[in-house]
Amino acid sequence: MLLPVEGIFLSIFFGIASACSIVVGQHLGANQLDEAWSMAKIFSVLGPFVALLMGGLLILFNDIVLSPYEGISEQTRLLAKSIFYIVGGLAWLKVINMTLAMGILRAGGDNRFCLLTDTICMWLISIPLVWLAAFYWQLSFFWVVVIMYSEEFCKIFMFAWRVKNKRWMKNLTS
Fold first, then answer.
1. Tell me: the pLDDT tens digits for 84-140?
2. In terms of C-beta density within 10 A (0-12 exposed, 13-18 middle, 19 or more buried), how is residue 148 classed?
3. Quick one: DSSP state of residue 61?
4. 140: left (phi over 0), alpha (psi -120 to 50) or beta
5. Which of 17, 110, 149, 172 fits a disulfide with 102 by CB distance 3.0 to 4.6 angstroms?
6. How far apart are CA 48 and CA 156, in angstroms?
């Protein structure tokens, strides 16, 4: 039920990450490394800030967003509402990672690092933790969804470290 809502919400930030990639890439291509670094810092703050604002609005207006599902049971509606709080409250994590990976690192051609980080965080961290939470610890669906965001927490540290060390700042045009 909430996947389309999250998809629409995140598609806005794909656009911001793409804009970041274009702007940062233009500066890198012109050998304006200081300007590329400045733009990277601006976008890495702007995206999550806007995501926090929009996530707050999603949470505030969740009844309106969930109104097309009026025919569902009360238990399902309450579960969807609680998951909606997770999606709205933690979307900024995904946005930070989209901005750092798609917008900044890939602008400098650091695709291999992005691929390795995505693979490690998903297959070695998130999927095993979600499996343990659901089948071994038998946590509620709410907590399984929260644990799904472990991938995003892992990525933040790896992507932020890579952005900060500036090894990604390469002119791909020469």
1. 899 889 989 999 999 999 999 999 999 999 999 999 999 999 999 999 999 999 999
2. middle
3. T
4. beta
5. 17
6. 12
CB 66 within 8 A of CB 2: no
**Token digits of residue 120:** 């490690």
Whole-model pTM? Answer: 0.88
Q: Tell me the per-residue pLDDT of 58-93, one tens digit each, with 9 for 90 and over.
A: 889 888 888 888 888 888 888 888 988 998 899 899
> How many residues in the chain?
174
CB atoms within 10 A of CB 111: 12
Query: What's the CA gap between 103 and 112, in Å, rounded?
Result: 15
